[in-house]
Amino acid sequence: MNFRQFSWSTKKKTNEFLTSNEFKQKGKSIKGSLLSILAGLMVAAIIVMVQNVNPFEYFYQLFKVAFNGLYVEQTMNWFAVYMIAGIGIAVGFKSGVFNIGMAGQMLAASSISTIVFWSVVGTNTAATPIMVFVTFIICLVVASFLAAIAGALKAYFNIHEVVSTIMLNWIVWYLFKFVFSIFKQYADDSVPSTSKMMPTDIFTINGSNILIPLLISGGCILIVAILFAKTTFGFKLKAVGSSQSASKYAGINVKTKIIQAMTISGAFAGVAAFINMYTISPNTSFTVDNLPTIGYEAIAVSLVAFNNPFGIIFVGGLWGVIQSAGPLTSGLFGMPTQISGLIFGVIIYFAAISIIFMNFAPTLWVRMKYYTMKSKTRKITLNGYNAQQAKYRHWIAFPKKSPEYAKTIEAMKHEEIKLYSQDFKETCRMEIHRIENQINLFKKGVLEKEITSGLRGLKYRKHTEMNKINSNSLEGYTDIKLDYLSFKDSLIERAKNYVAFEKTQIRNVKKIRNQQITAAKVWKQGAIGELSLEYAYINGKVQIKGDQAKELGQIKDKIVSLRTDLKLQIDLIKLNDSLSETDKSNQIIEVKSHSEVQIKNLKASRQEVKNKAMEQIAHLKREHLDKVAVLKEEQTQIIAIEKEFEQKIVQANAQFERQTKALHKSVLEHQAKYDLAKSEQDLKAAIDLLEELKLKTENKLIDIKSSEVSEISELSKIEESFDDLINLAEQQYLELVKIFGEKVFASYDNNQYVMKKVKIALEIQKIKMKVAIEKIMKVDKILISINNDINNNILKEAKLNLLDYKSDYKSRLAELKQAMSLTSKADIIKLEKEKAAKLTENKGNNESKADIIRIKKTYRNKIKEIKQKQNAGQETFDRYLKLEKDYNQKVENYIKTISAKFMPNIKEVQ
Known about the structure:
This protein has four domains: about 80-295, no CATH class; about 360-450, no CATH class; about 520-640; about 675-910. The protein contains 29 helices and no strands. It has helices spanning about 5-20, 20-50, 55-65, 70-95, 100-120, 130-155, 160-180, 210-230, 230-240, 245-250, 255-280, 295-305, 310-330, 340-350, 355-360, 360-375, 375-395, 405-410, 415-450, 455-500, 500-530, 535-575, 580-635, 635-670, 675-705, 715-740, 750-845, 850-870, 875-910. It is extended and about 145 Å long. The model is unreliable at about 905-910 (pLDDT under 50).
């Protein structure tokens, strides 16, 4: 496969990935992470503004200080540590465990490394290089061990890892606080309760400590990415993290995987401690009882990055910048140095609610609103749903407003009304939930219809079908590659077996001998075990313990039953109103006494069962030990078993020798059949076939590639040309088989000629594969080009026609509105004249002011009623509805017609 084919396949695979659901889901995670960081920074900006500081200037200075020559090394070291610690937390999260004990694991790793380092090095600086490697191993082992303890407690005792790791954190803290306070040789002389400072120039290259920490952290990121994306072990860890019960049913050892996940997470904590110890924090102060915060900050790094290894790179970088330059930048502006910590906290808070940002889709909301409001039918439907919801919410707040509720409670008592009210409100809530589901289904239907109808629908179909072309082309390419690789693997495997015939057969013969020796050892062990009654003792012990457990279980059930009966009898006595308090007391004492006697007897029988079982086991053990003692004194039977065992071993070795000699003989006979002249003759004929195929294929491919196709009907000629080349390659391979034989190589070929023949056979198949891939590429290119041209022309035509339909619809709608408006205006003018005449008449009759106001109000209401009829009258609504329905039907019919032209071109692609 040449570079052109490789780049084509890469492009197709990339396109398929970018349009896949997996990519969309990852995109949502990235969006959630970025928006949570952005929201956190915006809130931080507000906090900065409150202190009369320009937030843009603050963040500019933050990054400027972080990458200043004085602090860039510190920033990069923080970056490396956060990356490694964050990836360690991510391993735990992906596996379903929460390693909150990273602070303690890092502290233990660095503290023990410090003690070992200064114990060995002392004043001998020559030992420093080897001790760096030793401390690295110590960090790995110590941190992994601590995490494994928490994992084991979780797996075997169901003790939550958060509890156990927090406890371990403080155990580690106070343990090493004690160590560095008592053993002064490992402590700093100038500062009490502080570990001795480690050297900080270990990673220095050309005066910089940046490169090695970044390389180590990058390696850790790559390891975890490959672990979870490409290995079955990583898949099992993710499966356990997703569902422990499902993993258990799938045959995964959940307990082991929990311990392994915690151990790996702890190992990364050890690596982070190693980098941290030689760069950022060369010593640890125990003067104040506060655990190092870096382990907890790593949790935030992983959470904000959604446990994605590559996302942790960017989040770790941001954390490194804030940690390194935050306090300094705050000091430059005269703000408290705790501002950087506040920014951390705000971003973490928004990361915790990142699910809101993941589902945040303002464009979809706007589109949905537009699609709903542009149609009167949809608007009325949605308003109806909302009105129903509002009605039920109103009834929940004021149940008596419901006619049904008011009618039902008329004949009820107070207690019944209370219960009915609760049921009524619950029913209302259920109705609200049902309507909410209907609204969601309605909106989903509207969205689907808008996407799949009209011009947008045609574009969507075109895009979907173009993706099908890509998918089908890529599928064909993959099938061709798999066929070639399958042929190649099969042929090479047969060739290797032929070339390594003697080694393979000897390996098989050795395997048979080892199996016979193992069987003899098992027989010997079993025979001695039978003689010494060892198996009888073991099996008897298991049987006795099983019987004991069964009897103890029965006794326990009886005791529980007696206690339950006692409680029931006491309750019955207490509820018996015919008895006096004294009688009740006496009967309760009597019942208790009787039950206690029975329980006491059962407990005694339980002890008897245990004693009996112990006696039986002791008896079996005595028999076994007595038999062993007898066998030691009388060695006859043991010697006979040993003798027979040795005989079996001798037989196995003798058989191995015979088979080996026979194998060597057959190899010599096989080598005697070699005919190098015949092999050379076959090879020359095959080379001629190969050269002929190459020449014909190359010339023909040049002509086919240069040919241009503008019509679908011409495509068959191109396909026939490629098929001719593929058939030619197949014919040449058949000719090769006639020369070489069905297996490609023969018994007269030596190892050298076998590999040469295999190479030629693979070359011919490779040419066939190359031509088949070129066919897919050419056809794919032609189909996409032709269909794009055809469908684009169809879309242009559809766009113009749909615009005409829309323009016609709008003009008819305007005419309807104008007609309704004119009718309404005439009615309003008539009412205005009547009102004026009425007012004039009343003034002449000297009517009161109240009558005049009443007349004005009457006519105002009539005019308002006319306007309402204009906007919402049933007749008007029906006419609007019919007009909209006619328009939608017309568009739908046109889309069906245009799709009949549009779709056949796509079908030919498939």
